[in-house]
TrEMBL record:
Domain Replication protein A 70 kDa DNA-binding subunit B/D first OB fold residue range list: 5-109
Identification of the protein by name: Replication factor A C-terminal domain-containing protein
Highest classification ranks of the organism: Eukaryota, Viridiplantae, Streptophyta, Embryophyta, Tracheophyta
Positions of the Replication factor A C-terminal domain: 287-397
Region (Disordered), start-end ranges: 519-549
Domain of life of the native organism: Eukaryota
Length: 549
């Protein structure tokens, strides 16, 4: 019997060693270039001591290894290649991972004596940092499946879990895990409580509170499985409560967010971009526009407090060097701008704040895309792009090439016009919600087409003095131009509004330019350019001088 190397003793200097492990989780990774093609098989391996390490086998070696690689099976692996673990979240050995390649050999193992799953549970009230954890609890509330995204991997479901100590934790299940839970709850009417284990759950802190979620295909979900850990939990739960808990008593969480269909097609007024240049009242509107580009000289990200996601400001401080030289070392720390953030020492994480130029047939406007909605458009997080540029030595002020995928996309966009916009005549807006759903965009464009006035020459919509009279078409005023005059704007004001003359598109555009010069906005320097701030900052008012024609 050859010598078995424990995972803790794996060394990149040595290449001839053998490990005895159990595959406690296995999933496939899709190709970045073809979503239908499998690029690799990913595994979490555990040895008999309970230590874990991430391993990969790329497609070219499938014929050699695939028949041995099955979840919950045990294997011997000889001469795997050691590589650094570069993943953002470490769910096994934080420093190393293993790759199977041509010199590697694998054979079955029939006498593995370690744990079956390698759970290392954490109590909900002892979770103290952003990390990957194993959690166990029973469901007391759950939400409906959110299927607003076309990509099924982005469908999600919210659970409220409770542990033995009655501490509660919110857990979001994504993709196939959400469907697994939905099917289970629909078909299970037993008297037993619904006990859930999320292995390799990602935990993040927001405003000082932990929130958990499944992490892509890395997380593994167990629901009332016949395993020792769930049986033991149920027994403790019964002894603590003195009675059985029924799955039929689980509550449905009342939905706070409207469905995508209702939010875009039923609940809010459709608007054109030219209606947003001078906001007159607080309201929420829907527009349809095409992304023409990204504004330059404005950063595409901001550094956010990892605790509450408000912006964090860099500050310099000094400390004595530890080498005994009595010299002072300058160190960079960050301070959260949120006074309610309880973390004294914080870390920062880059988050998206992308100024998009969006255009419809009435004009072009800058709309700021923040992290939550940006996830719908990009394959990468802001942190991944930030780290990549930094590693390659590319200026962080330059837009990553990966962001260009948004250009020429047609989107339906929800915009909140706030009291700040109205009071300051500011047309600095963020994207409250967006969708690429073609059916929703088509419906919105049809509604807009049907709401426009019939083609005619220039016309007057009058004040109360002429409100009862028939709308009068005026042709004489512009007959000298020789242009075919058509209505180019809509008036939704009441009968008491002043008389308005709607002239040719050319003249309307010229008049609009006296108030807002979009070209001038583009040429303003960074220090003078208004920008939409992260949620904790007040936006800078837009002040653009009128041009004399």
């Amino acid at each position: 019997m050859e010598h078995i190397t424990p995972i803790k003793e794996i060394d990149s200097i040595k290449d001839d060693f053998t490990i005895k492990v159990r595959i406690i989780h296995l999933w496939t990774q899709k190709s970045k270039f073809n979503a239908k093609e499998t690029y690799s098989i990913e595994m979490i391996l555990m040895d008999e001591e309970g230590r874990k390490i991430h391993a990969s086998c790329v497609k070219k070696w499938f014929p050699k290894f695939k028949r041995y690689l099955k979840e919950d099976s045990s294997i011997y692996v000889k001469k795997p290649n050691v590589a650094p673990n570069t993943l953002n979240f470490k769910f096994a050995d934080p420093e190393r991972k293993l790759n199977f390649y041509h010199d590697t050999t694998v054979k079955e193992c029939e006498n593995f004596s370690g744990s079956a799953h390698g759970f290392d549970f954490v109590d909900f009230n002892t979770i103290v940092s952003n990390n990957i954890w194993n959690i166990i609890g029973h469901i007391f509330e759950y939400g409906r499946m959110d299927t607003s995204e076309e990509d099924k991997s982005k469908h999600k479901m919210l659970l409220h879990l409770q542990d033995i100590e009655d501490t509660k934790l919110k857990v979001t299940l994504w993709g196939h895990n959400a469907y697994y839970m939905t099917e289970f709850l629909a078909n299970n009417n037993s008297l037993a409580p619904v006990v859930v284990i999320v292995q390799f759950a990602r935990v993040k802190f927001i405003n000082g509170r932990p929130f958990s979620s499944t992490y892509f295909d890395v997380s593994r979900l167990f629901i009332n499985n016949d395993i020792d850990e769930i049986t033991s939990y149920k027994n403790k739960l019964v002894s603590e409560n003195g009675q059985q808990l029924s799955s039929s008593g689980i509550k449905m969480i009342a939905s706070k967010q409207n469905t995508e269909h209702d939010d875009f097609l039923k609940n809010h007024m459709f608007s054109n971009i030219d209606d947003l240049f001078e906001p007159l009242e607080e309201k929420t509107v829907i527009i349809v526009g095409t992304v023409k580009g990204i504004r330059q000289n404005i950063r595409w990200y901001y550094l956010a407090c990892s605790n509450c996601y408000k912006s964090a400001k860099e500050k310099e401080s000094s400390t004595d060097k530890v080498d005994g030289s009595h010299e002072v070392a300058e160190i960079v720390t960050y301070e959260c701008s949120n006074p309610n953030c309880k973390n004294i020492k914080i870390s920062v994480i880059p988050r998206f704040k992308i100024p998009l130029r969006v255009q419809d047939n009435t004009g072009t406007l800058t709309l700021t895309l923040f992290d939550q909605e940006a996830k719908k458009l990009f394959k990468y997080t802001a942190k991944e792009l930030y780290d990549k540029n930094k590693k390659l030595g590319i200026s962080l002020d330059l837009y990553p090439m990966e962001l260009k995928v948004v250009v020429d996309k047609k989107l339906a966009i929800k915009i909140d016009i706030t009291s700040y916009n109205v009071d300051n005549k500011s047309n600095i807006y963020g994207l409250a919600r967006l969708t690429e759903n073609a059916n929703i965009i088509d419906e919105l464009e049809k509604k807009n087409l049907n709401s426009q006035p019939d083609n005619s020459d220039s016309f007057i919509i009058g004040s109360s003095d002429i409100a009862s009279q028939e709308t009068k078409v005026v042709k004489d005023s512009f007959s000298h131009t020789g242009e075919n005059l058509t209505p180019c704007a809509r008036d939704n004001s009441t009968a008491t509004s002043p008389t308005k003359l709607f002239s040719t598109p050319t003249e309307l555009k010229r008049n609009l330019a006296t108030c807002i010069d979009l070209d001038e906005m583009e040429n303003l320097s960074t220090s003078k350019t208004p920008r939409l701030s992260p949620p904790d900052e007040q936006p800078i008012p837009l002040l653009v001088p009128k041009k004399e024609k």
